[in-house]
Write a structure and sequence with these properties.
With 441 residues, the protein is α/β, with parallel strands linked by helices. The protein has 14 helices and 17 strands. Among the domains are: 158 residues, NADH-ubiquinone oxidoreductase 51kDa subunit (Rossmann fold, 3-Layer(aba) Sandwich), CATH 3.40.50; 68 residues, no CATH class.
């Protein structure tokens, strides 16, 4: 069974929401739409206070190279453009829209349930459409998708890899989008294959998903150039560099990008959003997310409009369970705890994970004895114990010289450390310090 070569761990999977079909979540009363909910520069507003907007209408334009268009997720009136707090407590500029009672879509969007199979756009037109519709990567990084398909001169794309591993504990939105929208996903992959100009696309998916694998393999017979590749269950199988090695046996060197080894990687959720954008002319105004937790009576996978407050989700499930200690956006390995439940959902939101006091308990930190378990677990071949020592002594540049920035913050070191050292937290702190030092220079 294919897998990556270095490190990796096996956290408890907790895929307890796999049987929860995707439900359409109700619209909020007010939508808070951030201008920088993608990697890169914030978009520039093209609406003003008092403007009436329709669902799917462009409200903020990408003017920088690494940026993404933003469209109204609702019909209503712009209440204000102001600084608002996100779910982590950071202040960000947002367009606040009061939602109307009756929804009205922009005329260009095909809102019918009909599946559009014929791909009529050219390679360039597909890339332009992804840019126009504000498509970003939904695997976590939210990198503007169209940029990946603008292949730099001197580079050549040979592999299109679709990440369906969903290796994070608890998350099942990708699992459900495969089962509930199989054909649309495969059409989306065909669109991406045409945009990249490669003969074949490979779907990497962990073998703990037998039903999605069987569904994809059966349906893929109707499509040209799509191969389903079952992978060994090992975290972080879905990380970009690890997925590339698992499928192609190519290694992305330090400081390089996937295209440097002929690869382009997209999440399976992104493929679905590309189908909607290119085939149905629908911009990225909603996300499919898992609402789950061991103390939650009923598990959910929702399609939720961007700008919806997390508090609406909490109210919809009957309030938070009594033993809830943390609410995490993302999975237990790379996700982050929410401090502001009134903050809105953004394009890259994948879950609302409710963690009990028992699960959230952190053991007391002990002294590192350099046992090497963090080194063995690291999928990037780094030395987390060394980073910890350097960081705690303020030697941030020396940590950078030892390839600190190659760390993808997967949490394997923290998970495997018998001394319970907060290694991932320390690394995140050091990266922030290094970026501040770079800015000062």
């Amino acid at each position: 069974m294919r897998t990556f070569r270095l490190g990796g761990v096996h956290p408890e999977e907790n895929k307890i929401s796999t049987n929860a079909k995707i439900e359409v979540f109700p619209l909020p009363k007010q939508a808070v739409v951030f201008l920088n909910q993608h990697l890169g520069a914030p978009a520039t507003p093209v609406v003003a206070k008092g403007d009436a907007v329709k669902t799917g209408q462009l409200i903020a334009k990408a003017e920088a190279f690494v940026c993404a268009n933003i469209h109204s997720p609702v019909t209503g009136t712009v209440n204000k453009i102001d600084t608002m707090k996100d779910i982590f407590g950071y202040n960000k500029t947002a367009i606040v829209i009061d939602v109307a009672e009756t929804e009205e879509w922009v005329e260009t969007v095909d809102t019918t349930p009909d599946i559009k199979r014929e791909i009529t756009l050219s390679q360039k037109e597909i890339i332009d459409k992804m840019k126009e519709m504000g498509i970003v990567g939904l695997g976590g990084a939210t990198f503007p998708t169209h940029i990946k398909y603008m292949i730099p001169e001197g580079k050549k794309a040979e592999y299109l890899l679709i990440n369906a591993a969903e290796c994070e504990p608890y998350l099942t939105s990708d699992h459900r989008v495969i089962l509930d929208h199989t054909e649309e996903v495969l059409i989306g992959i065909s669109v991406l294959r045409k945009a990249l100009g490669v003969p074949k696309a490979y779907i990497g998916i962990e073998n703990n998903k037998p039903e999605p694998i069987a569904r994809l393999q059966e349906m893929a017979k109707q499509f040209e150039g799509i191969e389903v590749v079952p992978l060994k269950v090992k975290y972080p199988q879905g990380a970009e560099k690890q997925l590339i090695y698992s499928i192609t046996r190519r290694c992305v060197p330090s400081g390089k990008l996937p295209i440097d080894v002929g690869c382009v990687v997209n999440n399976i959720g992104t493929a679905f959003s590309v189908y909607e954008a290119v085939q149905k002319n629908k911009p990225l105004i909603e996300t499919i997310m898992t609402v789950t937790g061991k103390s939650l009576g009923q598990q959910h996978n929702y399609v939720v409009r961007i700008g919806t407050p997390f508090s609406d989700l909490a109210n919809a499930i009957g309030g938070l369970p009594e033993d809830t200690c943390k609410i995490i956006s993302g999975g237990t390995m790379m996700g982050k705890a929410i401090v502001n439940i009134d903050g809105p959902i953004v394009k890259g939101t994948s879950s609302m994970l409710l963690i009990s006091e028992k699960e959230a308990y952190r053991f007391e930190e002990q002294d590192c004895i350099r046992c090497g378990k963090c080194v063995k677990a690291c999928p990037m071949g780094l030395e987390p114990y060394l980073f910890s020592s350097l960081i705690n002594n303020g030697k941030f540049q020396e940590a950078a010289d030892n390839h600190l920035m190659d760390c993808m913050e997967c949490g394997c070191c923290l998970f495997s450390c018998p001394a319970h050292k907060p290694l991932t937290d320390e690394i995140r702190l050091a990266k922030t310090k290094l970026r501040q030092m770079q800015q000062k220079k």
